[in-house]
Predict the structure.
Amino acid sequence: MRRVLFAHATESFQANESSMALAHQTTMRSLQIGQAASILGECHRTVALPTSVQIQAFDDQSHLVFLHATYVKQIYYGDLSTLIDVSTTSPVASDFDALSIDSARLMDRLMSLAEVSPIAGGGNCRLALTDEDRDGRDLVVSWMRDLNMDITIDAVGNIIAYWNVGSGAPVMTGSHIDTVRTGGKFDGTYGVLAGLEVVETCQRKGYIPSRPLAVGIFTDEEGARFAPDMLGSLVYVGGMTTEEALDITAIDGPRFGDELVRIGYAGSAPCPGPVPHSFVELHIEQGPLLEANNVRIGAVTGVQGISWQEVTVVGQSNHAGTTPMSLRHDPTYVAAEIAVFLRQLSARFGEHQVCTVGKMDVFPNLINVVAARVTLTLDVRNTDETLLQQAEQEISDFLKQIALAEGVTITTKKLARFEPVVFDPRVIDIVESIAKQQSNTVERMPSGAGHDAQMLARVCPSGMIFVPSVNGISHNPTEHTDTDDLVTGANILLHTMLTLCATELG
């Protein structure tokens, strides 16, 4: 009978290999392997460990078995003659292939988070840095702590939880938990909670990756309260300074930095943050293509370029009944013409060009008054940077023309501008290969929506996994993805992350 003793901080435990019984022993910081039947037995070898370790053991097939927490720096194995670094040791290949997430646990967490800030129709409203966002963060952080992950919070509120196993830079996943005002249950939250499920699956099944795993919650991905979108991940990779971010004003007035302090998530970790080995984000598609093409998984090739601007049209407020149409300087009419022009531009440029007027504020907003001012937002996207720039120029030219023709003043303010992003082909290949290995249909496709992965792609090899959105609906309380698809995506994330751990990407 072989007995294996593992030391953890000021306590140590002995694991009987056949029964897995644990016996509390005195304080030690070493690993001992003995053969005798006594509690400590005859120690054939004692090796000082460079760090404290936490409890691990073997089952009778000599596979790692998770007992408590999970970090072992070194172990003895087999005939006790060879020292093996756990960072390069895993269960046999068949066990790796059989690893799969716990679907009930994943869905339970998704539904529990959906209970924070519910709205009519089954969705959620957790605008960034509101009380509701704080409550959601608190819940997810509690789950991170349950998994004994090391948690950091940086200066803009990004939360990164590390499972510190193996060595080197971590393989990271994650997304966001903030929503738009009329959000669904799965946008962003699915990627975060699937990441936690990857970690818990490995822990419970005794699989120790060769690198640390990290799960991130990035602040204000939606940009619905503080522009630009992907704000937290943009600062994380150094695309915006912390000072700039903290000084941004919300659509409802408060300053970003003040709200961060108010909800208790102004952290001390610096930005830019540590660069991961690689990053992969799991997300619902938020569009109709996978479902329409009867495809299970999207291996995302990149993200469209995004141009956001706010346009303010100032005309002349006047009486709705006495002002002749030919003498009006009507900003509402001009705003409507801008919206029509964007629709026509999209049709001329083709399927990869999309344009949206998503917000319009009219002042004084009275039924019997020609408006004095209208403020509207323009969201313009294309997968091709050259075409996106051409669209921006045409819009600028049109604004000048209609301002002159209608006798109004038009000013613009840039809210966000990101070039199209192409993901790392090696990560795309891994996602596609694993999806096919698990008997799924796969389609390579760009993302129409912006995602944190496009920011991480600036600093490390990155990619994304899409699962279908029913009827292509998102940013809507009725947003839905079937449970089977959510589970399938999480299993692909699991194996993608573990494969990335073992892949040198340079």
